[in-house]
Specification:
Blueprint lengths: L1 E5 L3 H13 L4 E5 L7 H9 L4 E2 L7 H4 L4 H10 L2 H10 L4 E3 L4 E4 L5 H13 L3 E3 L6 E3 L4 E4 L6 E3 L1 E4 L11 H4 L15 E2 L3 H4 L5 E8 L6 E8 L3 E3 L1 H9 L1 H6 L7 E3 L5 H14 L15 H10 L2 H4 L39 H10 L10
Parallel strand pairs: 1-2, 1-10, 2-6
Antiparallel strand pairs: 3-5, 4-5, 7-8, 8-9, 11-14, 12-13, 12-15, 13-14
Bound molecules: flavin-adenine dinucleotide (FAD).
Flavin-adenine dinucleotide binds next to helix 1 and helix 2.
């Protein structure tokens, strides 16, 4: 029995090794179009490779995989995070669990994962063809794999582990096999914001922020970082991933609401009222509510109704909150007044522009 695996990334190697261990008589060939194997693994997890997660604090998969929780649930029934943990340790990679439940190699280096895959592929006699792009598959019996040089090779099984593709053209050969192709869009990017006052707060981190796109169900919580181009951090990266298709459809322009406190407006107002009552002689500017960084707090106050925050010299303590209906401390910017325009992710801007150059303006069927 012969199996061709097309793509020498994490998925290709993981499949090849498991196939050979379960089915030692199987002849397994990995085709890799580039000169490098497992290149993405090298950069994963900031060079440390986040192998899995203990899921200890995850009660609901849809909260952490809103775009594919049903599929994830099904897949994890067959191979769970515990199986993944055990697999790596059984194959000679000791792991460590971080306080946030993420699992990394104890060596804190993605190279140990690459070394593990390469070692076991060699041990099991897996045939690896570098610089060998597969250009076509003939779906007859036996299946045939076509490469630019040499004659087509026959296989009993073919697995496609070609990873993500940035353009439709890279997927055309799979569409030719009858597969339905999802239009590829970028994911996991940061946002540009046209608000110089906010950007001046670069370097500010808020741990428990929630970012949302008004009028949609897209929202994400977590640490948020203000950068010199806009906002970044886990909350924003997650939001970009949840709303990847929506943002692509809206040409990467959308309003954004940031809740800096993790509380609703009533709670915010109640907490501020209590603070003011407890500190009748203090200015709001000298209070530090919600654990917000001082610079950000001052920025938010400056956006609020400044009159109502200024003490009247004749009445020393009228340190009042702005009136409720105007929502001055809602910590959000109504899009009709001052939209926060999100542009392409700055660190990925070159890449995304590149992608967009190659993407048709509208979704187009692949079939001629
Ligand atoms: C910066 C960054 C950090 C990440 N961090 C993490 C992390 O910490 N934890 C985590 O779980 N995930 C992480 N990921 C995601 C993870 O790296 C990928 O999901 C994973 O590597 C994908 O593996 P793959 O084998 O599916 O695809 P790929 O790694 O993309 O491999 C596909 C391979 O197929 C080859 N190929 C494509 N077409 C052909 C063809 N026609 N013929 C022959 N070969 C072909 C490609 O050259 C490529 O080598 C990160 C990703 C990035 C970019």
């Amino acid at each position: 029995m012969r199996t061709a695996i097309i793509g020498g990334g994490a998925a290709g190697f993981f499949l090849a090794i498991n196939l050979k261990e379960m089915c030692p008589q199987m002849h397994v060939t990995i085709y890799e179009r580039s000169q490098h194997l497992l290149r993405k693994v090298k950069v994963s997890g900031g060079g440390r490779c986040n192998c899995t997660n203990t899921f200890e604090d995850v009660r609901d998969l849809s909260a952490v995989y809103p775009r594919g929780h049903r599929l994830m649930k099904r897949l994890m029934k067959g191979f769970s995070q515990r199986d993944a943990y055990a697999w790596f340790e059984r194959h000679g990679v000791p792991l460590t669990v971080q306080p946030d439940h993420c699992v990394f190699p104890a060596a804190q280096d993605s190279q140990v994962i690459i070394d593990c895959f390469l070692h076991h592929a060699r041990r099991l006699g897996i045939d690896i063809r570098l610089s060998t792009p597969v250009t076509a598959i003939t779906p007859a019996s036996p299946l045939q794999v076509t490469v630019p040089e040499g004659s087509p090779e026959s296989f009993d099984f073919i697995a496609l582990t070609t990873g993500g593709q940035s353009s439709l053209s890279g997927l055309r050969w799979l569409a030719d096999l009858g597969h339905e192709i999802e239009f590829p869009v970028p994911s996991l990017f940061t946002f540009s914001i046209e608000d110089h006052a906010l950007r001046a707060l670069m370097g500010t981190v808020v741990e428990g922020a929630t970012a949302a796109i008004p009028g949609t169900k897209f929202r994400a919580s977590g640490p948020l970082l203000i950068t010199h181009w806009g906002v970044s951090g886990p909350a924003i990266l997650k939001l970009s991933s949840y709303a990847a298709r929506y943002l692509a459809d809206h040409d990467y322009h959308a309003p954004l609401i940031i809740n800096w406190t993790g509380m609703n407006e009533e709670q915010v107002r109640a907490e501020l009222q209590a603070l003011l009552a407890a500190n009748p002689h203090k200015q709001l500017t000298s209070l530090h509510p919600f654990g917000l960084p001082t610079r950000l707090w001052h920025h938010l106050l400056s956006k609020a109704n400044s009159q109502s925050l200024t003490p009247n010299p004749q009445h020393p303590t009228p340190n009042r909150l702005p009136p409720p209906p105007q929502n001055p401390l809602s910590l959000r910017r109504p899009p009709h007044r001052r939209p926060l325009h999100h542009r392409l992710p700055r660190p990925l801007q070159g890449r995304v522009r590149h992608l967009r150059r190659h993407l048709p303006q509208q979704r187009q069927p692949l079939d001629p």
